Amino acid sequence: MSRYTPHFLYALLFACTTFGLYAQTPMLYPPHLKKGDTVAIVATARSFQPEDLQPAIDTLRTWGLHVVLGKTIGPEYHQLAGTDEARARDLQQMLDDPAIKAIWAARGGYGTVRIIDMLDFTRFRKTPKWIVGYSDVTVLHSHIHTLGIATLHATMPINVKKNSEASMQSLKKALFGKKLKYTHIPPRAQNRTGVAEGQLVGGNLSILYSLLGSPSAIKTEGKILFIEDLDEYLYHIDRMMMNLKRNGYFDNIRGLIVGGMTKMHDNSIPWGKDAVGIVRDIAKAYNFPVCFDFPAGHIQDNRALILGKDAVLKVTEDEVSLEFINRKN
């Protein structure tokens, strides 16, 4: 910075650094659903068979919605639901079809990153629709967040039979534009109390880690970061958290929400900390509120989270709450 920089700019930079006054990404929210709308179910990663979709289809129909199945439901190409080209073509059709009001990923696994650069979001940006899912779908959440469009981190058809009623109702509320507020979430001794307000971003830790350095990587400054993961070795969790730290992901966030850290593994020589301990160890260098065991992720009680929407996180000694809000201009 030049030595001639006006003093007020120094003051502004100091305020931004000290108080977290970062400009939020202007977000566009897809229209909420109404009865009679159509939801498309597609497989962007691993294969998924149509007979396993019935519980999800029945649920959507009881909500008054129509269902269209993508051409990726059924095919198998090794582990994937068709070739990369076929999966990209199927998703592209649903992104561009004005009759489709929401796209629900059938399952996660791995494979969405293989098609993200094949997609054209030109029409989607003009007439956005809700993208719904979690886990590997974090690729879509993150990429679309960089376009300034909100998405919905929520359960998927593969999980519907096992999900809690609260999980399913939160998905319905989010899709139909009802207010989302989670209260009375039990505290953990490892939590750090405080209040944070900002856009909620994040998703699966492994996916966020894999997107670093790419055009799909999110920016976290001035935002509340959510992470969750499944089936990882503890030293992998440490490596991913260290890489996010070195990339500045925690430097200026407002708060950290840790969802399910499910089915973690250790080596014969123990790593020495569980997943909560690893995250807590990283977070201790900062001063934002932190909560653990938030009901979202690879767990039965997987509550819907509107990524890109402003929220207030409150972590007290007695409970944790998260409320999505409309920010006043």
Q: Which labels suit this protein?
A:
single chain; 329 residues; alpha/beta; Rossmann fold; Glucose Oxidase, domain 1; 2 domains; seven-stranded mixed sheet; six-stranded mixed sheet; 21% strand; disordered N terminus; carboxypeptidase activity; Class_I_gatase-like; serine protease
Give a description of the structure.
- There is one protein chain.
- The chain has 329 residues and is of the alpha/beta class.
- It is built from 9 helices and 13 strands.
- The strands form 2 sheets. The protein has a 7-stranded mixed sheet.
- α7 crosses α8 and α8 packs parallel to α9.
What sequence of helices (H) and strands (E) makes up the elements? HEHEHEHEHEHEEHEHEHEEEE
Percent strand: 15-25%
User: Alpha-carbon distance between the termini?
Assistant: 31 Å
Overall number of strands: 13
**Count of DSSP helices?**
9
Kindly report the spatial arrangement of strands forming the biggest sheet: 6-13-12-7-8-9-10
User: Which structural class best describes the helix and strand composition?
Assistant: alpha/beta
Second CATH tier, the architecture of the largest domain = 3-Layer(bba) Sandwich
Shape: globular
Overall radius of gyration: 20 Å
- What integer is the average pLDDT? 93
Task: Please name the CATH topology of the largest domain.
Answer: Glucose Oxidase, domain 1
Going by CATH, the homologous superfamily of the largest domain would be: LD-carboxypeptidase A C-terminal domain-like
Helix content, binned percent: 25-40%
